[in-house]
Every structure is written in structure tokens, then in C-alpha cells.
Design brief:
With 530 residues, this protein is of the alpha/beta class. It has 17 helices and 18 strands. The chain has four domains: 125 residues, Rossmann fold; 100 residues, no CATH class; 51 residues; 212 residues, P-loop containing nucleotide triphosphate hydrolases (Rossmann fold, 3-Layer(aba) Sandwich), CATH 3.40.50.300. The strands form four sheets. It has a six-stranded mixed β-sheet, sandwiched between helices. The protein has a six-stranded mixed β-sheet with strand order 14-15-16-12-17-18, sandwiched between helices. The chain has a three-stranded antiparallel β-sheet with strand order 2-1-4, with no helix packed on it. Helix 3 runs antiparallel to helix 4 and helix 9 runs antiparallel to helix 10.
Length: 530
């Protein structure tokens, strides 16, 4: 069991945690949730004893092995892929190293033989004879081809490095597993593999994720960071959300009842306090008033933006015709003979293991990149707005505030109108005066969404629109795209987002591997059968 006792931590005058007492027990998977900035990653580092709290302590039994998903993608560049995974079980790996050094000695002594025998016993107890096979199976399951297992980590692209580090954390059945955003940079297939792995995992898992479907699939409990506390709830993410919404509503209703009662008592006291015959009753009402709990509800760190897209004109039936699009980048063929038509009402998700190919296709459709061959024809009634996965260039302008930044994309230049739009995406008052260059990843995404909302476009092109957002913002974007009356082409690794938005699936593997009008879950079931 992993537990905390009176853990408190402040950064720069801001209190992240205040006397946190929480227990994480064996056999459960805890989803650690909270608004951006609430301290989810920091709390994981406290649990891993990478950060020392200001007060309190973290308790982990000495016989339990704790494993953490590493975030430094370059730390293992000089090691082979398979060896990097084996390093996840530090005790086993050290035994393997010492064994190799002993057997390599030219003057192998009797003492060395005794030590080697002891190491062999420990090696067998830790299932060492199956270790390489287990690591190889894990790598294959998560999408790392056999041909990469003996390559050095520095030879892998960043997406594959993430997968190897995840395999490293999972390797060897750790007793406690700490995972910070394990689904980031994973394709939909690797996420499915991870869901199945964690569903079968018998020990303790604490995971930070913004993927709602993933949290619902793997979690038995939610650990909610809010009000500088960590509160554990039984059940998955959907159960937590329903329970907390009900609790907040009940607390709000009770506050209103208390407030109304207080006003009634105050009115009675004002009216009769000077009346001798009623003074005793007025005094009694004063005591009742003093006993009433009129404290305001704690201000939650959670805020949900409003995301809504209103087309200025309705598009016709013919939205888009793509014929024979091909593109080679840096000598690699990423797209070959891509052809499809898009009709009114289509909400298309682009699936496929190569994220770069999907991004490239959206760049071509948006007119950002020219294809090597093929044609694109947009319907005459269409107007488009594009959300690129790389938005850096949009925030390199010389404007000094977000008000001025968003004004560039608005027909109505009035400041109150611009501030109103910024307020919808959670930039109110002084936040609207931030410099665009200092925004976080999530703040930039919200600004880009505000820009798209102003466009009035009837076709949206979206490349990973929920990246960098917290759960509340992801839900808002999800709902906004669901309500949108126009056409959409998008990419996402978020199961629930895809399932609730897409009505058509196009899978890309250089060419179009499949194109079907159905929901994502229908498509997944179809693929299993075929």
C-alpha cells in the first residue's frame, strides 16, 4: 500500500497541497484528475519521492517495487531498445549486469562461482529466463516492430521512444505503477493495447490522463485534486463526474436555503429588535442566525470554456473532391493516390498509425502544402477553418495582448466584443491582456478555437484539437463539434471524441486502406471480424 500523511506543498506562494492524507491500495487503478495547474504531475513526483513535500511524508513498504513512466525521451539514447525495457526492473537488470561481468572474467575464481550461483538463484526467482521474451512481446504489443528491438534508442523517432519508455515502466510486474499521461503520442491501436494491459494488471496503478474513455476503461477509483486536497472516489470517470455534479448541486442548494433563511431572520431582527414585546424572539432569531453556516462554496480550480461554431452560411451538398493526391517528404512516400469525396453532413475522422501522414493530408486540404500530384476541389459554397497541430507561427506576431491577437481574426473590432469571445474560452479580465508569446500549450489551443469560432466557417479541419487541454475543456470541444451543423475532417487519439463526433471513418496507410460510413466502435468491431 502507498499512502501519504499530512503532505503539504507550496510553490511561489501558491498552495498546491494542504495536509493531504490518502491511501492507494493493491489491485486498484486510480485516475488522478484535476484542472491544468492543479498539481497532478507534481503529486506523482511526490509519490515517487522525486520531490520532497514541505510537510508530511509518503510511505511505501520497502518490499514493494515502484515503477515510474520516464519523461526524458533522450535519457536512454545510447542503449538498445530491448535493453532499455529490461532496465525497467532495476533489481533484475543489476543482477544481469553482474552475471555478465563475472562470466566474462578471465580468472574466474571459486568465490566468483559461489557468487554466480547466488545470482542465478535470484535471477530465476525474478523470472529472468523469460525477461527478454516478455520484453519483446510487450514491445510488439505496443507497436514496436521486431526489427527495432536491437537498434539504439537514438535511432527511433519520438513516438516510438515514448512507446519504449512505456514498456519499460510496465515491464516486470511492478507493485506500484505511476503513469503520467501514458496515452500521449500513442496511436489508437497502442492505446487499446495499454487499456487491455492495465485492465488485467493485478497491482496498484496511479495514472494521469485526459482521455475520458481510457479513464472509464481502466480505473476502479478516481483521485481528484481540488481545493488543495486529494479526494478518492470509488468508480470510474463517468461515475465521479455524476457524483461530484450532484454533490456540488446539493451544496449549492443548501447554501441558497441558508442564505434565504438568513435574510428572513435578519428582516425579523431589524423589524422587532426595538419592540419590547418581541425582543426575546428577536434575540432568539439572532442566535439562530449566528449558528447558520453561511460560508460560500469553495472555489473549484475547474473551469469549463464554451465552444460553439456557427456557420455564416449553409454549405451545399458537394463539399470536397480529392483525386489522386500523392506526396513524398524527405524521400519517404507518405501519401499515394488518395481519392475521396465529402458530402454535406460528413464528419470524417482520419485514422492510421502514421500521424505525420494524416497531418500532411490536412495541411494539403487546408492549402498549407502543395501535393506532388493530384487535385483538390472545394465546393463553391464552402468556407474553411483549419486547426493545425503545430500552431507556433500564429503566436509569433508582434501584438502585445490577446485582445489585439484575436482582433486580427474578427470582423467586429470592438474591444468589448473581442473580450467577450476571449471570456468564452476562459481569458477574462487581466487574462485577456496576456502576451501571446507566453501562453501555455492549452491556452494556445483555446485561442485557436476562439479564432475558429469567429470565422463562421461551414467546414472545419481539425488536427488533434484536444491536445494539451484538461478534461473540462476536452468535454467542451467535444460538445461543440457534436453540435456543429457543418462538415468536419479531423484527427484524434481520444476514443470518446471519435465515437461521439465521427459518422465516417477513413483509414490511411499511405493510400486509403478503408473508407466506411459508420461510428468508430462499429468500425472497430468490423475490423475485428475481418
Amino acid at each position: 500500500m502507498l499512502s501519504t500523511s499530512n503532505v503539504s506543498l507550496s510553490f511561489g506562494g501558491k498552495k498546491l497541497f494542504d495536509d493531504v492524507n490518502v491511501k492507494f491500495t493493491q489491485g486498484n487503478c486510480y485516475g488522478l484528475i484535476g484542472a491544468n495547474g492543479a498539481g497532478k504531475t507534481t503529486f506523482l513526483k511526490i509519490l515517487a519521492k522525486e520531490i520532497e513535500p514541505n510537510t508530511g511524508e509518503v510511505s511505501i513498504p520497502t518490499d514493494l517495487r515502484l515503477s515510474v513512466l520516464k519523461q526524458d525521451h533522450y535519457a536512454y539514447d545510447s542503449f538498445e531498445v530491448l535493453r532499455t525495457v529490461l532496465m525497467g526492473n532495476e533489481k533484475l537488470f543489476k543482477i544481469m549486469q553482474e552475471k555478465d561481468q563475472l562470466y566474462a572474467k578471465p580468472d574466474f575464481s571459486d568465490a566468483d562461482g559461489i557468487r554466480a550461483s547466488d545470482l542465478e538463484t535470484q535471477f530465476a526467482e525474478l523470472n529472468g529466463w523469460e525477461a527478454e521474451s516478455e520484453a519483446g512481446i510487450m514491445l510488439a504489443g505496443i507497436g514496436i516492430a521486431d526489427s527495432l528491438h536491437c537498434k539504439q534508442m537514438k535511432e527511433l523517432d519520438s513516438a516510438d521512444k515514448v512507446k519504449v519508455l512505456l514498456a519499460q515502466a510496465l515491464f516486470g510486474q511492478p507493485d506500484i505503477l505511476l503513469l503520467d499521461e501514458p496515452t500521449n503520442h500513442l496511436d489508437i491501436y497502442a492505446i487499446q493495447w495499454l487499456e487491455n494491459f492495465l485492465a488485467d494488471f493485478q497491482n496498484t496503478v496511479i495514472v494521469v490522463s485526459h482521455d475520458r474513455y481510457f479513464l472509464n476503461k481502466v480505473c476502479t477509483h478516481m483521485a481528484d485534486i481540488d481545493f488543495s486536497k486529494v479526494t478518492v472516489y470509488s468508480g470510474n470517470y463517468d461515475f465521479w463526474r455524476q457524483a461530484t455534479e450532484l454533490s456540488q448541486r446539493m451544496r449549492s442548494d443548501q447554501n441558497k436555503k441558508n442564505s434565504d433563511k438568513a435574510e428572513e431572520l435578519k428582516a425579523f431582527i431589524r423589524r422587532f429588535s426595538a419592540n419590547a414585546s418581541k425582543s426575546k424572539q428577536a434575540s432568539s432569531r439572532q442566535k439562530q442566525l449566528e449558528k447558520l453556516d453561511l460560508s460560500d462554496l469553495p472555489v473549484s480550480s475547474r473551469r469549463q470554456p464554451f465552444i460553439g461554431f456557427d456557420p455564416k452560411r449553409e454549405a451545399g451538398n458537394d463539399i470536397l473532391s480529392v483525386q489522386g493526391i500523392s506526396k513524398t517528404l524527405n524521400g519517404e512516400v507518405l501519401l499515394k493516390n488518395i481519392s475521396f469525396n465529402m458530402q454535406k453532413g460528413d464528419k470524417i475522422v482520419l485514422l492510421g498509425q502514421n500521424d505525420l501522414a494524416k497531418t500532411l493530408l490536412l495541411d494539403i486540404l487546408a492549402g498549407e502544402v502543395k501535393p506532388d500530384s493530384g487535385t483538390i476541389s472545394w465546393g463553391v459554397t464552402t468556407t474553411r477553418s483549419y486547426f493545425p497541430t503545430d500552431n507556433v507561427k500564429f503566436f509569433q506576431s508582434e501584438v502585445s495582448t490577446l485582445v489585439d491577437w484575436l482582433r486580427q481574426y474578427s470582423e467586429d473590432k470592438d474591444e468589448s466584443f473581442i473580450r467577450g469571445f476571449l471570456g468564452k474560452v476562459l481569458f477574462s479580465r487581466d487574462e485577456a491582456l496576456k502576451k501571446p508569446s507566453v501562453l501555455s500549450g492549452g491556452e494556445k489551443v483555446r485561442c485557436m478555437l476562439a479564432r475558429m469560432m469567429l470565422s463562421g466557417a461551414n467546414v472545419l479541419l481539425l488536427d488533434g484539437p484536444t491536445n494539451h487541454l484538461d478534461l473540462e475543456s476536452i468535454t467542451a470541444v467535444n460538445e461543440g463539434i457534436k453540435r456543429f451543423k457543418g462538415a468536419v475532417i479531423f484527427t484524434s487519439h481520444d476514443h470518446e471524441f471519435i465515437q461521439t463526433v465521427a459518422n465516417r471513418i477513413i483509414e490511411i496507410d499511405i493510400g486509403i486502406a478503408d473508407d466506411r460510413t459508420m461510428t468508430y466502435e462499429q468500425y472497430a468491431a468490423f475490423k475485428k471480424k475481418h
